[in-house]
Write a structure and sequence with these properties.
With 476 residues, the chain is an alpha/beta fold. It is built from 18 helices and 13 strands. Strand 2 and strand 3 form a beta hairpin. The radius of gyration is 25 Å and the shape is globular.
């Protein structure tokens, strides 16, 4: 790892590796004495040999403010649990991400066996923030205006370019972009919500498509939706509509393009009550006309980003129930994907098109789309849910839908195509243009062209597999 990128160092590299503990039945007076003697601001509480909670100096102050007797009160009476933990091998950005979302200053660090080996705190991470992505995460969390977030959105793109040039593994890079974009959007929601103090909490904001899978790159537009409880009054629904309009306008304002297909929460068809979403999902999957296939496939990747998790879970369950009983939908979806699995023309040459007068290849439409969507339709058929493309390929291998060789080839090809897509986007940024998905053959060396051909051969083979798997020979 490049020394200038502590953002991706393992948590274990900064975690303190001495864990101070106390027994759950110890008095608070004894706990405070241990913390004072060891000059620590928190202590882990153990019961029957297991770590069950934590006490911080703030907990001690709160107890004293309540007038409780430190000699009579036990550690288990004021501890907080369960513990938030993270594996020592995970990157630091994950620790900061979870700490920010949970509004906590510390996380416990475990080894591969789950044994507690240390603790990482906000202070540890702040020492590393300087000019790196950790500082960017903190800046997003502290942003107080849409203008600040607009500037930070630009910094996310610049950070992604820097990490790409440092040779960061493509999966970590894409995951980082997705997490930073999540933080931006959550912070934006909170800022916009300040103008709607009476806005209901009985709703959930959903992200769809590549954002739902956590596979965003720089040229990704927004795809999102909103679900709200059935019991809301007309006035509450109207306020949600105004909030959604303001949110999407603000999102466009910070630099996230609007969806050309209108898949955004400001549009009524993507902002529905729970029962309406259930009905709509059922209609999509039982009547697989082209628009329904597109919408149902996009919605399958839904992920709750903000709001009531129970509402999102019920919508997701409706999707799972509907797709598991819709063989025609899956067949139509697979047939649509197979059309994009023919990247070669005469004499085995890659099919290209002219883009601004340059021979170019749309790496998203004709490379990544067949893999991500083909893997998705197989996952749907198996009744599985969640995960990004890598994880879904692994699930399909585990379910013996794909052979180990097929899985390895798909992962390798996906990574090559994603790397080339990012290269195209970063080259466009460097030239002062908007990020796009077109590979210019003039900008590729022989090795990259060879990698592209091998990856597209996998796409072509995968298309034939889908055609046989879903028996599409007779479909028109």
């Amino acid at each position: 790892m490049n020394d200038t990128s502590p953002f991706f160092e393992p948590v274990g590299s900064v975690a303190r590796h001495e864990v101070i503990t106390c027994d759950a039945q110890a008095t608070v007076h004894q706990v405070a004495s241990i913390m004072h003697e060891r000059s620590i601001s928190s202590i882990i509480v153990r019961r029957d040999g297991a770590e069950v909670g934590i006490i911080t100096d703030r907990d001690l102050r709160a107890m004293l403010a309540d007038g409780r007797d430190a000699q009579a009160t036990r550690a288990c009476d004021i501890m907080r649990g369960p513990l938030f933990t993270i594996n020592e091998d995970r990157p630091l950005y994950e620790a900061l991400y979870h700490m920010s979302r949970r509004r906590t200053h510390r996380m416990c660090v475990t080894d591969a066996s789950g044994k507690l080996i240390g603790m990482v705190t906000g202070t540890d991470l702040q020492r590393l923030q300087t000019r790196n992505a950790l500082g960017l995460v903190l800046a997003i969390e502290r942003a107080e205006s849409v203008d600040e977030l607009r500037s930070l959105h630009d910094q996310v793109q610049k950070t992604a370019v820097d990490l790409f040039r440092q040779g960061l593994y493509i999966g970590e890079l894409v995951g980082t972009v997705a997490r930073l974009n999540d933080l931006l959007l959550v912070r934006l929601i909170k800022l916009v919500r300040q103008d709607y103090p009476t806005l209901t909490k009985d709703c959930a904001f959903l992200v769809l498509g590549s954002e739902g899978r956590g596979e965003q790159t720089l040229a990704t537009d927004q795809d999102n939706a909103l679900v709200y409880a059935d019991h809301l009054s007309a006035a509450e629904v109207d306020e949600l509509a105004r909030f959604s309009e303001a949110l999407i306008t603000a999102l466009i304002g910070i630099g996230v393009p609007e969806c050309t297909g209108g898949i955004m929460a400001r549009n009524p068809e993507w902002r529905r009550s729970l029962s309406d979403w259930k009905h709509t999902v059922h209609k999509w999957y039982t009547t697989p006309i082209p628009d329904h296939v597109v919408h149902g496939t996009m919605f399958f990747d839904m992920r709750r980003l903000y709001g009531d998790p129970a509402l999102a879970q019920q919508v997701q369950q409706a999707v799972i129930d509907a797709v598991s009983h819709s063989a025609p939908f899956l067949a139509r979806s697979a047939a649509n994907i197979v059309r994009f699995c023919k990247p070669f023309g005469w004499f085995g040459r890659i099919e290209t098109e002219l883009k601004d007068g340059v021979r170019s290849f749309d790496v998203k439409k004709n490379g990544l789309f067949p893999i991500t969507e083909g893997v998705k339709v197989l996952i749907q058929q198996k009744g599985l849910v969640g995960g990004n493309t890598h994880q879904r390929i692994e699930m399909l291998e585990g379910a013996q839908v794909l052979t180990p060789k097929q899985a390895r080839n798909l992962v390798a090809s996906f990574d090559v195509l994603l790397h080339l897509r990012l290269k195209a986007q970063f080259d466009a940024l460097a030239a002062g243009k908007k990020p796009h998905n077109f590979l210019s053959f003039e900008g590729l060396d022989r090795l990259q062209i060879g990698q592209l051909k091998l990856a597209l051969q996998t796409v072509e083979t995968f298309g034939r597999f889908l055609e046989q798997h879903f028996q599409l020979g007779g479909m028109r």
